[in-house]
Amino acid sequence: MAKKAAARKERPAQAPRRGRAAAPKRSAKGVPRRAAAPERSLEDLDRAGAEAFRRGSFADAAVAYAGILDRLAAAGPPDDAEGARLQGEIEVRHAAALRRAGKLVDAKRIAERSIATASESPDVHAAAHIVLSELHLLAGNRPLAKLSADVAGAASAGIDGPISAWALAAQGRLLWSQQSHEDASQAFMQAYNLCRRHADYANAAIAAGSVGMCLMEVGRLPDARNWVGRAAEEAREAEIPAVEAAWTVGLARVALAEGAPDEAARLAEAGLAIAQPLGLHLTIFRAEWLRHYLVTLAEPGVVDRARMAVLRKLKPALADYTGDREVQDLLATLAPKGRPAERVASFTDGCDPVPFPTA
Questions:
Q1: Apex CA 98: angle with CA 64 and CA 201, to 5°?
Q2: Is 182 within 8 Å of 157 (Cβ atoms)?
Q3: Residue 353: what are its φ and ψ, rounded to 5°?
Q4: Of 5, 38, 132, 200, which is the most buried if we count CB atoms within 10 A?
Q5: Closest CA to 167 of 190, 144, 185
Q6: How many CB atoms lie within 10 A of CB 236?
């Protein structure tokens, strides 16, 4: 094999016939070979990941961050605090992207790894625990969610930056899960103000919508509409479609609570129009679940085959959301002896998004 390879190297390339272009090189199967693309720099991959995350292409963001981590792994373990911090930051972003892409088990594994990697960097350590807290909530493990949220709060104490707002939002989500909606709204309001002060507009919009959902639960519907509407508008202005889609559907919930089912249906469809091209499974599910509920509300006893067919297709993408009440309602409805149609909707878990990475 070595002699043949050497002979191939020594053989001079034949000049193309006069008057004809040189034929492209072909593989053994006769397929034209493409020229190898130049390797992208770590900075390019980081920018690509941040941009994909911002526009809601979370699977693409996860691929970009995985590419960075592969390159860092090939270079060997970090040999100083700065290198460990860089790797920890990318691991947190990777975990956040995986979580938003619905890969909850992989997200948990990466987030746990980042805790060890960035143990000497309090803000990165806190960010990892914030992502873990959300993952534990989605898995229905509230004690571990509280533990991670508390660690994040302690690690971020005294840091004047967006991470303090993220830690407050983690506490808000925990309070939400405990049905302490008034206390949760206060935590989210503080998070909103801190995010705005630090020009963290993505998380400001997430916090604003979360305030609104809490206020809806305690019956303050005009205030809820103002906050959720503000969240959707701020996300639209900042060109963050994933957040805009989530809170457009959230605004549909407020409209339903106000007794405006037609507006709720229109807003749910508007949220779907944003979420579907991006493959935002959880937002698509929430919108379709709301539309299904509206059908059963308008025509009790009617079997909503169109919506249920869509929801069945979403079922595999929602398998890891064992702590989400609406997802569990769906799974119960799709079981052989599902719940009656009038009992299928709970609409109680609105605080979904996790902190966006900074880049």
A1: 80
A2: no
A3: -65, 150
A4: 132
A5: 190
A6: 16
pTM: 0.79
pLDDT at 11 over 50: no
In order, the DSSP letters of 51-95 are HHHHHT-HHHHHHHHHHHHHHHHHT-S--SHHHHHHHHHHHHHHH
C-alpha to C-alpha distance for 184 and 243, rounded to whole angstroms: 19
* Residue 37 confidence class, pLDDT cut points 50, 70, 90: low
CA dihedral 191, 196, 199, 204 (to 10 degrees): 60
Spatial separation of the C-alpha atoms in residues 344 and 337, rounded to whole Å: 13
Residues 6+ apart with CB under 8 A from 240: 54, 55, 56, 201, 202, 205, 356
Q: What distance in Å separates the CA atoms of residue 68 and residue 59, rounded to the nearest whole number?
A: 15
Q: Which residues contact 214 (CB under 8 A, 6 or more apart)?
A: 172, 176, 181, 182, 184, 185, 188, 351
Instruction: Summarize pLDDT for 181-227 with one digit per residue, the tens.
Output: 999 999 999 999 999 999 988 889 999 999 999 999 999 999 999 99
66 contacts: CB under 8 Å, gap ≥ 6: 94
Helix (H, G, I), strand (E, B) or coil at 338: coil
291 with 311: CB under 8 angstroms?
no
Write the single-letter amino acid at 196: R
Q: Is 29 in a helix, a strand, or coil?
A: coil
Would you give the DSSP letter of residue 26? Answer: B
